Amino acid sequence: MTATVEANRRLPLATHGEIAAINLESARRRAWARFAQDERRPGVAETIVDHERLAAQFLGDLDALDRLEALASQFARVDDSSRAALVQAEVASTVHRFADARSHIARAALIGAPREAIERQTLAIDQACGVELDAVLAARRRIATKSGRLEDLVPLGAMLADLERFAEADAAYRQALYSYDDVSPFPFAWVCFQLGVLWGELVPVPDPKLAALWYRRAIAYVPGYVKARVHLAEICASQDRTGDAAALLLPALSSRDPEVRWRLADVLIAQGRFDEAETQLAAARSGFEDLLQRHLLAFADHAAEFYAGSGDDRQRALELARVNAANRPTRRALKQVQTIAACADEAAAAATSPTNLPGEVRRERHDLLY
Amino acid sequence: MSDHVDGPRSIGDPTADLTDLFAFTSPENPARTVLAACVFPSAGEDAIFSNVIDHSIAVRPVTVAGVGNAAKFVPGSEEIRFSFRFEVLKRDAAGKAIQRGVCKLPDGRELVLTVNDENGASTPEGDVRVFAGLRSDPFYLAWTFAELKKVPNLLQHDNVLVMVVDFDTRRVLDPAKGSLFGAIAETVPLPQPPGRIGHPVARIDWIGRPEQTNIRLNNPGVPGDDIRDLWNQQTPFNIAKELQPMFLRRLTDSFRNYDMRDGKPDWTPEALAANANVFLDDFLLFDVAKPITDQSHLEIEKSTISGRSYQTGGGRTVDANVIDILVTWLVNHDREFLQGGATQATKPGMKVFPYFATPNMELQTVAGSVELAAAPEAVWSVIGQFNLEWHPAVARVRLTGTGIGQLRALGTIDGREIVERLEEIDSAKRWYRYALVAGVPASRYTGTIDVKPNGSGSIADWRVDFLASKQPDIVVRDMVSTLINTGLGSLKLRFGAAR
User: Fold this and answer.
1) For chain B, which domains are there?
2) Predicted-assembly ipTM surpassing the 0.85 threshold
3) Which region, left, alpha or beta, applies to residue B95 given φ > 0 means left and ψ of -120 to 50 means alpha?
4) pTM over 0.90, yes/no
């Protein structure tokens, strides 16, 4: 579908993203207060996991990951049931500690966790790690067909995209949009973002116009959607619309996501504002290192991209890409290692040459993400 | 992060989730009736309404069509409906976010209201007054239903969003034609404008009597699929005929199970079936010609099933102990009152409009900590100075007085002035505490700064507890976080970070 045709379609109404963000934050803090009153109260720790993941995913609140780690350890201290093991698994999986997550899941199974919860988490980990892909796809299809619900259709779409079955992935995402029968903007924004990534970064011949349309829709649903802003800003920057790119990034600066500063630095460089760009790059570098110190596996892939590009440290990039590939040897993770390694070799060969390599590396980025 | 934060599991909008429905005589004026509905369980302190949901309370006249084991309440077709819709946020002159809404009255008039305005909005004639906003959750639940074990109130300190309609009973309900009514509340998405993709959703949630779904239909002691979503998709006052036998079977099984929770059968099979029939017609019964009290909830149903005329107005007041009334009825047929582990909600209702207690606010904390390479004494010699001159966000300081009670007026680089008072200081322990006087939209604002040894270096801690006031909590939190993080960050530059 072309961007022009797609632009004529109007998406479903949802609660305004600003209201939803305020309500998420309000409910998130209340859930923590309930946890403080009684850590073992049924459902509270699980609710916190949901809220914190939403905050991380849609609001760019990366502190949510620290809070999740704190929750998991605090809960495990007071609860020896399968609930705590499942929460630990979910948190470990969220920060890409997949081996830990699998061991928590195994323990949860031993102490009687519901089979459905075990299967759901195992499936998510297998998909993220790129193992048993045929079995994962079959399970995703079975689950999505049975429920027909957005929360099952989006992972199916992501799985199909991983397998480079792009038309089917697009269909699954669109079905998800049609199927949702509530008014939260987060699920709609999620699907729009996935479609943006699909058309902007995964298909062999990207369609930046169509991708930009989906990212704009994601931002229209949730104005504070940091990842969508970053991706759309990249498209704007690639089309020399640096003013538009900066306008997208500036409101996201408070998120502490270093990728915002990294992309802003790229924009500033394109605008010839080198001193300001250097400040942003330093902040991005420090932000990535801070995150890597706390959640190495969660940020290894994005930090590798950063160092392979504007971060300008190919050895660090390669080191991080390898860490990521060892943790989850997906096609894209392995390709990232190869690409960075090749660039590092070229860089070594061209060490005496004034050729500017970072730009070339950056152009590979669309192959590296997701 | 990469792609597989697997997306929202809490997939719905909590503002569409109805928690309770109330119908009672106004404590302020017996000639007026109050209807109220709540949404958003555990809403926290800043929650606001969705702008794409129509929240309605609908009332229909009801007649008693049978008594005893043939007990039956039949709703009429005439409907009296109050519908609330809310807008996106707007900013007032001071930049504060406000939400406005409209309540459409049964006769088509519209009342514009501002969310959280305790005075609400009234018609010029004064026959209808409405309120919408955050309040303390009036419900309390102090049982676990798997084992019927008493526990403390599971909703203690919770808030909900409440919509209240207070009206002249005679003018709105015309009780001369019949004084018995049934009420429901429902949340329905606004119609999708033409050309939008997706399918129309008739309804997200609805409620009649309390606990139709969670306790009666989803009794943990009864095996079977969870049918609550299916129930929520039914049309109030008109449950799908083909599904009625299934719901009836589930209610009967559930009631049989509750009857035996104390090991004693208190109900005949016929009476259990009569209960199932009555509860299948799920609307909150109230009679405006009879007294509605904290104890009268379900009395209309119970008396009618028992084969006698009802004596009260039933309904549901803000403080009614609806769970224990229901549990007692189901488990032992009112033989002995079963009191759960709590006897009231976090806060009792109010006797004046808007009748629901003010929201619960909890002290918020922002804390930061930094590990430094310098010895505690060196760090304390700088940050132990109450003047805060070391802080990069402070442009100027004016001190008034000395010692405990000393005031510092801090001019920040972004042009604000914050005034704080020294409350306590212990230089030997390298610690001081201060309180806010002015400049931050918060009350009960206290801060502590201290320095502790940490190997060959030290740790500086800064903690602020506060209650946001006049601004959303998140605004104050951001303000305080920035102050703390900037300050502690500057210490790292000054003293070096510990390795």
Assistant:
1) 14-332 (no CATH), 364-495 (3.30.530.20)
2) yes
3) left
4) no
